[in-house]
Amino acid sequence: MKIGELAETSGVPAKTIRYYEEIGLLPPAEREANGYRSYDMDALQRLRFVQHAQAAGLTLREISQVLAIRSEGRAPCVHVRDLLHRHLVQIDERLAELRATKRELQSLARHADALDPADCPEDVICSILVRER
Amino acid sequence: MKIGELAETSGVPAKTIRYYEEIGLLPPAEREANGYRSYDMDALQRLRFVQHAQAAGLTLREISQVLAIRSEGRAPCVHVRDLLHRHLVQIDERLAELRATKRELQSLARHADALDPADCPEDVICSILVRER
DNA sequence: CTTGACCTTCCAGTGCACTGGAAGGCTTAC
DNA sequence: GTAAGCCTTCCAGTGCACTGGAAGGTCAAG
Fold first, then answer.
1. Are B87 and B63 in contact (CB under 8 A)?
2. Which of B59, B79, B60 is nearest to B69 (CA)?
3. In the predicted structure, residue A133 carries a pLDDT above the cut 60
4. Which range, of A116-120, B55-59, B99-103, averages the lowest pLDDT?
5. Which nucleotide is nearest to A29 (CA to C1')?
């Protein structure tokens, strides 16, 4: 399987696959006689793993770590477990933040919708956003 | 008020305030005879506005736009209104994404917690993350 | 034999929001 | 007068995850 096909199958752009290899996230690909990268199903699996892990909120650096640990023959389970728990905490924090932002935004939006632009006073930057909450 | 004091009062590092000026987010500060930047309460208000707008999820670029529109004498209300509504949509999307990620992560974490690392098979990258959902 | 779709490397840029550090000037207190 | 702690500019780097483009090699179809 050439890089274009892998890109097609996985949905990850060829450029990005090369980039992943470059930063060591993926192992150097096998090469055909002509120098083209050649991939097997393992490569697809690895790429899918990267996608899953990314969807789970892990950074490429963290994914690299898991991959590296695995390739050393150690089971990354404990490591992954920690990573997962840490990310769950982070996600909860981020969720709380986002919800607060949403409330703030909604209150601002309600205020904005009730305003006639002509009423905007000249002496403040923007009465919608500046008013005290 | 010198930059350090403004930084102290606002909680925004002096470095960042200079950066904001550099990118045109804040207007060039008044200078004292010795070249030091000098700020008044308006500056503090602008900085607070930036903080609020940032907390509301606007990018510095968007905040610049609002500030620029205002400084042209036009009321940015309509613009801000649009911005707010667009950001509300974005936040809802991001919230949905995050919640999905959280569910995914929780399911992975439950799986990981139930696993003995010794059970990790050697032939997959990481059974926690790779398994089908 | 050419056209077009692939593939290669390499370098450089993007976007976002800073942040660090060097080299030097100013101010205040002792 | 000197030391600490401000301030200035300028350049450069950070982190994350790509993305673009140039210049060139390869392959299959017509």
1. no
2. B79
3. no
4. A116-120
5. C8
Residue B57 DSSP one-character state: T
pLDDT digits (tens, 9 = 90+) for B117-131: 666 666 565 666 555
**Distance (Å, whole) CA A28 – CA A71:** 13
Cα separation, B102 vs B122, in Å, equals 27
Q: How far is CA B89 from CA A49, A72, A91, A98, B84, in A?
A: 30, 44, 19, 12, 9
Q: Nearest nt (C1') to A32 (CA)?
A: C7
Cα–Cα distance measured from residue B88 to residue A63, given in angstroms and rounded to the nearest whole number = 31
Position B26 scores a pLDDT of 94
Q: Which tokens go with B10? A: 């606002």
- How near does any CA of chain A get to the CA of B15, in Å? 23
Same domain, A59 and A2: yes
Single-letter amino acid code for the residue at B67: L
Question: Does residue A6 sit in the same domain as residue A41?
Answer: yes
Provide the number of structural domains found in chain A.
2
Within the 21-60 window of chain A, which residues sit less than 8 Å (CB to CB) from chain B? Answer: 45-46, 48-49, 52-53, 55-57
